[in-house]
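Q: I'm a student working through a structural biology exercise. My instructor gave each of us a protein and asked us to get a predicted structure, then write a short paragraph describing it. Mine is Universal stress protein. I'm not confident about reading structure output yet, so if you can add a plain explanation after the tokens, that would really help. Here is the sequence I was given:
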Amino acid sequence: MISRVLLAVDGSDLSERALRYALDAHPGAEVSVIHVVVVGASPIMGAAAGIALSETGADGILEAAEPVFDRAREIAAESDATVDTVVEVGKPARGILDRAAESDVVVLGTHSGSLADRLLVGDVEKAVFRRSPVPVTVVR
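A: Happy to help. First, here is the predicted structure for Universal stress protein. I'll explain a few features afterward.
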């Protein structure tokens, strides 16, 4: 039985779908929602992530992640569940993989839209899928 789920979110509709899946598929499991912030990324990457990344500092990083976590808490409350939240700074795949061993499964949403989505996010999905020490579920 799955008792600990690590769910990577980026604030997209697809990550919300992945959260709903995780809550439905693993009722009663402890769900940790991780949001990885890429500090020092190019302005284009920061805009794509919806986060102002120029020298945000720790407070700015936490502040940027809070709307993503607020939405995750709202979705969890709809299922009478709660979630723990984790912010990591750095490369998304590395941040997810660093915490994967603490869970029974990693759940990710996939982006199947634009070429930019497939290039940027697809690399994260592939890296996590290939190197995770626990099973990975990719939700479309």
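A: Here are two points you could use in your paragraph. The mean pLDDT is 85. Helices lie at 13-25, 43-49, 57-78, 92-100, 115-131. It's a good idea to check both against the output above yourself.
Q: Great, thank you!
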